[in-house]
Design a protein that fits this description.
Order of helices and strands of chain A: HHHHHHH
Largest interface: A-B, 45 and 45 residues
Number of strands of chain A: 0
Radius of gyration of chain A: 19 Å
Oligomer: homodimer
Structural class of chain A: mainly alpha
Shape of chain A: elongated
């Protein structure tokens, strides 16, 4: 390739990286806002989370389009090809994280409309959100630094989020059994906690993609499983 | 392109189509088996569903690899490029359908282990599974025939599955309020019905991909929404 071609190719990859960084920032913000909205039944904040998701969808579409055009135009091989594939995969996972945060926000609007509040469940969900957000940030840093070791560390820690979800699940079940008036809000919160756990699955996907990007290796099919309470089979 | 190149290119696309057809058949079977397993608490059948998922994952990996290599080697444009992109997207959606069927099967093993049976909820879930399976079959036929009109029809019918989920949700909520002993099985069945609804979302994705493949057009961002019971915000 001529120097000019190489330069413009680098620019294309840089543009992909910039868009992914923007998506990551937006998803992190949506995630933390969605839990704030849930805790305070703040419908206005929930609406802002929902509307941010459009930007995430648009960015994902642009990344896919650019990556495919780069592959078709430049026929990259090995690491450069993996850069393009990784960009498509990671943007897909961040977009799904945004969808899950949006869903949390939508449940807030429903709970608020029905005047349902179950403050007791908030600390558990908040702990899940903290962990999910910190793992997401870590894995996006691992991507930015092309650091497979850091990615593997995040990958192996997904079990912690699973364990937290087990405990939230048990707690919600107890609340429902104690008082039938808790049943309706608790069903929504069950889905909230499941959504937070699924965010962890996407973080794990991103970790696998970072390892593949840098090393060309595919991670083992079996993911680490924590000591899960038998009533909560791993959702996927 | 020489005649030889064209021929071998066609063969590559045909191979992609064959693998997607195989994935579709497997996912349809997993879906119907998972509901049979749930109805009869048939743990052995549930295990078969779980183990079939490995094959689905392998096929998806092969499709992604082949499609990307085809793009890189042959630099296809317009319809041929869309063929490759569509193959990657559709295989991703079928793989997710398999994951959701696997999750249904896993819940069966948990319900069986705890001796929980709630026969009353089965007809609603069975109706959801019938509809999800029939829509999945329709959209895969639309893909095989490259028929965007048929795909749009499936796309517009996703609201029916949403409406069914609303009714199952309400029914499960009532069961829980009637008798606290129903709470534990019902929480599992809530997730089962949510999983079936999410299969409908993947069918809708596939419909959008078929339209994009044939026409080059992207469907509107807003999906049709049925008259949803306000307590069940669209999961995504």
């Amino acid at each position: 390739m001529s120097e000019h071609t190489v330069k413009s190719y680098d620019q294309e990859l840089e543009a992909l990286n910039r868009m992914i960084a923007e998506m990551g920032g937006l998803a992190e913000k949506m995630l933390s806002d969605s839990i704030d909205a849930l805790e305070n039944l703040d419908v206005e904040l929930a609406h802002r989370v929902v509307s941010t998701d459009t930007r995430l969808d648009l960015l994902q579409g642009k990344i896919e389009e650019s990556a495919v055009l780069t592959i078709a135009r430049r026929q990259p091989m090995a690491i450069d090809l993996r850069e393009c594939i990784a960009a498509v995969r990671i943007s897909g996972d961040i977009e799904r994280v945004g969808d899950l945060a949006k869903n949390l926000a939508r449940r807030t609007t429903v709970l608020a409309a029905e005047g349902l509040k179950l403050q007791r469940a908030i600390p558990g969900l908040r702990a899940m959100q903290d962990m999910a957000a910190s793992q997401l940030k870590d894995v996006l840093d691992a991507y930015a630094e092309r650091d497979p070791e850091r990615a593997k560390l995040v990958w192996s820690e997904d079990t912690k989020l699973d364990a937290l979800e087990d405990s939230v699940f048990r707690d919600l079940l107890t609340s429902m059994m104690e008082d039938p008036r808790n049943i309706s809000p608790c069903t929504h919160l069950l889905f909230c906690s499941k959504n937070l756990e699924r965010i962890g699955d996407h973080t794990t996907n991103i970790a696998e993609t970072v390892v593949y990007l840098v090393t060309g290796q595919t991670m083992p099919l079996d993911r680490p499983k924590g000591s899960r309470w038998p009533s909560v089979p791993g959702d996927s």
